[in-house]
Amino acid sequence: MIESSRELRDVCAIVGAGNSRLGRVPGISGLDLLVEAMRNAIVDAGLKVSDIDGIVCRGPDDSYCHHQRVGERLGINARFSTTLDNGGASQILAAALAVMAIKAGLATTVICGYGRDAWSRTHASEEARVRNETRPSSQRAQEFGPEYGYFGAVAAHAFGATRHMHLYGTTRDQFGEIAVAFRGHALRNPDAQMKKPLTLAQYHEAKQIVSPFGLYDCSLRSDGAGAVIVTRSDRARDLRQPPVSIKGFGSYNNLTGWFAGDNMVTTAAKESGESAYKMAGLGPADVDTAQLYDCFTYMVVAQLEDYGFCKKGEGGPFAASGALRLGGSLPTNTSGGQLSEAHVEGMLQVVEGVRQLRHTYPKERQVKDAEIALVSGHGGNQVCHSTLILGRG
Amino acid sequence: MSATKPLPHPAPESAPYWEAATQRRLELPRCKACGKFWFPPSQSCPHCLATDFEWKPVSGRGKVFSFVIYRRVYHPAFEQEVPYVVALVELDEGPRLLSNIVGVPPAKVACEMPVKVVFDDVAEGVTVPKFRPA
User: Fold this and answer.
1) B110 interaction partners in chain A (CB closer than 8 Å)
2) What does each C-alpha distance from A386 to A156, A253, A350 come to in angstroms?
3) Domain that holds residue A32
4) How many domains are there within chain A?
5) Chain-centroid distance, C-alpha B49
6) What is the pTM of this model?
7) What is the CATH number of the domain that holds A265?
């Protein structure tokens, strides 16, 4: 296995973080939501727009050179600028690419972010409800799927859940605890899309979508955006916020497919995490809070195992023990995650990891004494994965 | 007017697969260099990258690697079908195929269940391989 470059450890820090309005935000494009989040991140950092000389972002799946639209709206000519295409793994890759560009001397201060209008696209009007698609039609499968009634991301991830339940006896009660725990976190987050409590009984009573997944196993359709600003660590110390150091990152892609080998049970989080831990010089026991890509409850179970927080097969009981709750041994998705805060394809997980390490939250939202946060990104229907390890100052 | 189910739109490299299905044969590309089957069809072997291959019948037998049960209607043509099973079937020859499990109530489907291919004539000249308990 390739050694992650330790030369990149602690070279850069995240000095600004922001989010847009989240949830149901009709009348604004994903692009302008992203610009809203970026403006908030720039203000948060105490920087001027002219300080930003790099943009790494991700656009909608049918966009061309999305970063050009972002720069146009922010009034930036960037020294380093590009758009990424790695699904929900893109958002962490953006921060990783920012570090590499800064280390290479191609830029000094890079803004990264992602925004989407997934609720408005699918629910804001009757026409949108009928269409109910976030992906452009040209990218949908033409054979080996639709003729069997196979549609959507829910099923692709539900296959892994079925297999995990078969191999390890994982239960829907355990999945339910994840949904309930993250809802509890969302109730402490005024920006979160979901405002009402959720009980395990309500989880079980909710309609089934694609079994074994019911409604509350599935993440939200959201409008929203998040952004972070990366700069050199020595520069970060002079800025407004307590700096959050980028200690390690990693990536892995099971391009042979989610259906190949054991990929649906042991995900690319395993190799991605190993790279990130090596770069950071840390292991799972050092992590105080995890912000995991929770597109579906089961993916939290798989990642808890793949990141080494418990053994393979023990993710269900680990989650059900209450470990993931604020106050538990590994507070996870402390803003409510994609199941209850908003689904912005992993971008808000990065933002929350940063905020936890600043220690500026009110007591009921703060992971006590959090020094190290692990953030994950996952995309392309269980194929691509990225990991970010952040450290306090 | 009721909606019609989507029909497969074969890519150039998968046309022989669908052609064989209309004649009630399950055929996959098999590499002449390394002897392995693969799926989905493509113009070179993903195991050894050789381009010399042939279309060969497989046994049509395999087991359910994993499966899901659709309860929500994603496409109006499947309104009468829910709940229906979409499974990943691992053929005895190795490749895994996405398909439906038919001829058994969804609640009876399980991982590792042995299955064998059946052919469903879904439209004039279009036959879709499905699986039922072996």
Assistant:
1) 166
2) 19, 9, 11
3) 6-120+220-392
4) 1
5) 23
6) 0.96
7) 3.40.47.10
